[in-house]
Design brief:
single chain; 532 residues; alpha/beta; Alkaline Phosphatase, subunit A; Arylsulfatase, C-terminal domain; 2 domains; eight-stranded mixed sheet; five-stranded mixed sheet; 13 helices; 20 strands; 16% strand
Length: 532
């Protein structure tokens, strides 16, 4: 099956039959579509437009299409039945800001920079599409990539950011804020949550919440710009990232009758250091409530996309950027933060394995692909879908050959890594590695967690990761050794098979070292990564 772009002329009758069936099924889906049956096939199916939706901290196992047994997400479930689903999608650069850099530049951010602003000379997805005559627009409430100085909105023809997430200096009143729990249980103490609660103090109903506002504005944008111009719409919502404060009726579904403290923005730490079991359970309920709310508003947007009859020529992509530990492996959060010290946690599947679903006209809804896929591949994929040439700076690979059935995979391993691992100092060279800054290397069946083979940091390293606060990177857990897991038998990575399956770990390590060499790492850096 060959995807048909706007500039492709060859007729494909079989493809059109599949496409008509897919659109009919979508039109029959409750809530997502109202009264727009598909038109009879006439000529080629077209992919004129792409809508990309990113939900921050969306765990793969929180979604019904991925077998969630604790949260129901009916809207994404319905979408997945009309889209194709990637079973082996993994983070590339981690976390929020590096991931956006991956998506919008098509480069492995962790190999050359840290959590940092968009580089002035970066060739972006939106710039490339704009030069091809395609309208580009950004609507977001995710704070860090689009704050002053970070500039990831650069090159979009139109953009709007919904202010107020996290510690955004948005409102200065009310002066006094009542915290929902002991500030000692909160990351950054009372600072961030105080500002956040001040920012949302005028909120009155669910439509005022961030994800709702972002999806409502996206629907309005589609209504106003559904005029025949080809477009790329990039939507980025911070939910279900903490602070977790969805309407109470969502949380009640998961922890009815709870009356204790609500730790809506927990410290990144071993959870038993500061939370009771009931508080941890409630954190999970708060997160689940956020996911349920996000699902509802994604359904609202899908409804509007279908009502505007855009499914006949528009690809829709949904991904999560990474997950979040909610007690697994003893952690809550996605790093360890102790005062001014910072350490990344290993990227187990709860964080590293992400949801990725793609709808395109003519796809066989409900199909599932085993191919490895990562956010770094999205720029090439979107350009390929729209028939636009891929710049030579792009390192990710297009997923279109997989979507068309011409290839079973686009890469042999996926490498996920915190974006500190290969950052630069004023552009002069690589910073010393940290043994606690580990990559996850996987072929879809086996997963290796591996970092620099050294006892301590080779020199001082700092990062602004997680919340744009500068902290010193330290090894806070003592000696760290490589770990190996079988994802098929042990998806939660509870049994380390490093000793029993050393040959498999060695093979993954060899491929990883080849990857690093391809990124032109100097020998002074590679010397720490030669043994396993």
């Amino acid at each position: 099956m060959k995807l048909s772009r706007a500039n492709t002329k060859t007729s494909r009758r079989d493809f059109l039959k599949v496409g008509a069936g897919a659109l009919s099924a979508y039109a029959a889906t409750p809530r997502l579509v109202k009264s727009h049956p598909p038109s009879p096939p006439a000529g080629d199916l077209r992919i004129d437009n792409v809508i990309l939706i990113i939900t921050d901290s969306m765990r793969r196992d929180a979604l019904s299409p991925y077998g969630s047994d604790w949260i129901r997400t009916p809207q994404l479930d319905r979408f997945s039945r009309q889209a194709v689903l990637f079973e082996n999608a993994f983070v590339s650069s981690f976390p929020t800001v590096p991931c956006r850099n991956d998506i919008l530049t098509g480069r492995y951010t962790f190999t050359y920079k840290d959590w940092s602003p968009l580089d002035p000379d970066a060739i972006t997805l939106q710039e490339t599409l704009g030069k091809a005559g395609i309208l580009t627009s950004l609507i977001a409430d995710t704070p860090h990539p689009f704050t002053p100085g970070y500039n990831y909105q650069r090159d979009f023809a139109a953009w709007q950011v919904n202010r107020g997430q996290e510690a955004d200096a948005f409102r200065s009143a009310p002066r006094t804020i009542k915290l929902p729990c002991n500030p000692g249980k909160l990351r950054e103490g009372e600072k961030t949550v105080t500002q956040y609660l001040r920012n949302v103090s005028q909120r009155g109903r669910e439509e005022d919440y961030f994800v709702a506002q972002t999806m409502i504005k996206a629907a309005k944008w589609l209504e106003e710009n559904n005029d025949g111009r080809r477009f790329f719409l990039y939507l980025d919502t911070f939910d279900p990232h903490e602070p977790w404060d969805p309407p109470h009726y969502y949380v009640e579904q998961f922890d009815r009758g709870y009356s204790g403290e609500e730790v809506i923005y927990p410290r990144y730490e071993f959870w038993q250091e500061f939370l009771s079991e009931s508080e941890l359970k409630h954190c999970r309920a708060l997160y689940a409530g956020e996911v349920t709310m996000v699902d509802r508003w994604l359904g609202f947007l899908m409804d509007r996309i279908a009502t505007l009859d855009l499914l006949k020529n528009t690809a829709v992509i949904h991904i999560g950027d990474h997950g979040f530990y909610l007690g697994e492996h003893g952690y809550i959060g996605k790093s360890l933060i102790r005062n001014d010290s910072f350490q990344y946690l290993p990227l187990y599947p709860e964080v590293a394995r992400i949801p990725m679903m793609i709808y395109f006209p003519g796809c066989q809804g409900g199909s599932r692909f085993k191919a490895l896929a990562q956010p770094v591949d999205l720029m090439a994929t979107i350009l390929d879908l729209l028939g636009v040439a891929i710049p030579p700076s792009v390192e990710g690979a297009s997923l279109v050959p997989v979507l068309e059935g011409r290839a079973s995979d686009i890469k042999k391993i996926a490498v996920a890594s915190p974006a500190l691992f290969g950052s630069t100092v004023s552009g002069t060279g690589k910073v010393p590695p940290s043994p606690a800054n580990r990559s996850t290397i996987t072929d879809g069946k086996w997963l290796l967690i591996y970092g620099a083979q050294m006892e301590e940091n080779a020199g001082p390293v700092h990062t602004a990761s997680v919340d744009s606060v500068i902290r010193e990177v330290k090894n806070l857990q003592g000696k760290i050794l490589p770990e190996l897991y079988n994802l098929e038998d042990d998806p939660g990575c509870k049994k380390n098979l490093m000793n029993e399956k050393y040959n498999i770990a060695s093979d993954l390590h060899t491929k990883y070292l080849e990857f690093l060499r391809s990124k032109k790492y100097p020998e002074s850096y590679l010397q720490y990564f030669r043994t396993v």
